[in-house]
Amino acid sequence: xxxxxxxxxxxxxxxxxxxxxxxxxxxxxxxxxxxxxxxxxxxxxxxxxxxxxxxxxxxxxxxxxxxxxxxxxxxxxxxxxxxxxxxxxxxxxxxxxxxxxxxxxxxxxxxxxxxxxxxxxxxxxxxxxxxxxxxxxxxxxxxxxxxxxxxxxxxxxxxxxxxxxxxxxxxxxxxxxxxxxxxxxxxxxxxxxxxxxxxxxxxxxxxxxxxxxxxxxxxxxxxxxxxxxxxxxxxxxxxxxxxxxxxxxxxxxxxxxxxxxxxxxxxxxxxxxxxxxxxxxx
Amino acid sequence: xxxxxxxxxxxxxxxxxxxxxxxxxxxxxxxxxxxxxxxxxxxxxxxxxxxxxxxxxxxxxxxxxxxxxxxxxxxxxxxxxxxxxxxxxxxxxxxxxxxxxxxxxxxxxxxxxxxxxxxxxxxxxxxxxxxxxxxxxxxxxxxxxxxxxxxxxxxxxxxxxxxxxxxxxxxxxxxxxxxxxxxxxxxxxxxxxxxxxxxxxxxxxxxxxxxxxxxxxxxxxxxxxxxxxxxxxxxxxxxxxxxxxxxxxxxxxxxxxxxxxxxxxxxxxxxxxxxxxxxxxxxxxxxxxx
Lengths: 282, 290
Prior knowledge:
The complex is a heterodimer of chains A (282) and B (290). By secondary structure, chain A is mainly alpha-helical.
């Protein structure tokens, strides 16, 4: 069996963050993602980093699993950093280094550092949601948050069901893929030799059974749901009813406070804190 | 000659994470050429992990696995290893992919880079052996076959490589009693005609006893029993301790004991049971109602 996959990345632990209501976590994450684009000062980034570190500590997450999600986007971060370094400067800024048309200025260095900080913190913050929330709870949360749309006849329950089924089958498909690969390897299939065309062709013995099995599985699932008279009506109740608890209230307050400080920093203090903290450096 | 030699094999899944799981803990096992070995053990005892080491699908973390004297860690030999150790997975019918049965069976031999004539010869032989006559089934789509036929077709795909060692992981899973009987006969036939050494993983204790010369019981990644079916299943306490079922006939023997009729614990077949009961009747002077 394939137990090394941590897809969906849920990290099981017993912490107040894990026990929080998925809806609250979704809204908080949304606030965080919006908030981070309003940050202009180093003070703001420091505050964000401190907030994230606190969450990681409270949620008892190992630092490795948090950084793993950053590793995946490292290339994009490096690429944007490079572009910003050469093109992100303002006119009239002091020139640090130049070669033909390529110019690095003081302001472009600052833009780059802020850009990298923003991306890394954004990815880390967003990954905290999936690290501490099970896919099922997440799907339920989305359903609950979207439920007002039912008034304009959006089939929210069906969408949520489709979502949870899709999430539920990701590990199954992973395992299945692994099994088929193992079986075809046992018959001497090679997946890592030959040119691109040959490699693509070598995938057929994996993809065809995978598709056939997925359809079969979908068919069986539909049949099983049908024979239990499944339908997405209002009469359906949840096995686990989500409740707002103390941790939800506290974290909402903390997050609102964070959001207010970010806004104050941007529109009223105008980088004042940065000047106080770092002096003439910035 | 030793077909398989496993020394101090340990394997841990998801090392250094909270979901770390020891699948194999210091396994030592030698299997001679011509032996039929059945590996039993409850779910999660490490059976599947053990057999996947045999053709190098899983690389040994610590310890050595040698097939016909060559360690599986030898990278140059990996391809040959895959052809020497034929691996039939659980539900093998889910790996069929070609548009005709013959093409699917030919997948293995084709990867061996054999000549066209040789491939053709092997495909015919394999299909005939598993009971899917070439003339009738060669051009049919594997997806149109019945469940049992699909499984046979998948087994033929492995057999066509003419491996020296055949490994079967739960070949009876999801079959009805008739299907179990058919596959049992097929496995015996394959051992006779193609690959003399067979390693089989199963939950089906009746088939395990019927087929194997030797039973290896795993529990929590360790070998806890290794011997003939009579030796292993004769030790009822151990079997109970490691959470295994006993074969049907052994259950009957246990039930009879509860009723006060003590028989030999190593009885595993109906014939043995009948003669033992007849003997018991004679001893009791023929008046016992058995």
